Amino acid sequence: MTRRREFLARIGVAAATLAIDPTELHAAPVPTASGPWDTSWLDRLATAKYRVVFNANVIDDGAVLDYAATFLDHFHEVHDTTLSETRPVVVFRRLGTSMALNDRMWDRYAIGADSKIKDPVTGAPARRNVFWRAGNSAGNSATMMETMHQRGMISLVCNVALGNIGRRFAEQTKGNVEEVQGELRANLVPGAILVPSGIYALIRAQNAGCAFMLGT
Asked: Which one, 38, 95, 152, 153, has the greatest CB density within 10 A?
């Protein structure tokens, strides 16, 4: 009986290990004096009639923003909804996390070159966040993050992925890991909210009544 229990325990540990995303194992602590995590986005979800959460784990030319805009447009077309009745949530995690960093970080750490994202205006590797400002892009301004935030989109950013990105940038620039990680957290696009992990955000949003959709 003892051997059987030990065998089953080993199987459980192995299964749990296989379920863990290896890029989300090294969360750095959040240097904040303001107390607990910002959960105000849950209140915004509670007042909406239709809710959906998108898993933006890759950039994919910003496809997740098109999906969020389609959700808003088509629910308005079919059900004549107002913006207060519809609420898209985008969880930026893993390779999609850089979409939530501001122009300063894109320029400082050459994110466009690293992620092979070209500036639609210059054709060169982007030195700014080409998914952010509606008035500074050759793309569809209606699906830029700035516009989507005005339409009620909630942007959640994975702290674990941000810590991993900060560690990589620090290695590339010979900088201090904790300082670079803190810099990234302080330079999210306006309106973005840091959450403990993308996994937490995806599960919590669904707990709050969101349908789930892939972001790519």
From this structure: 153
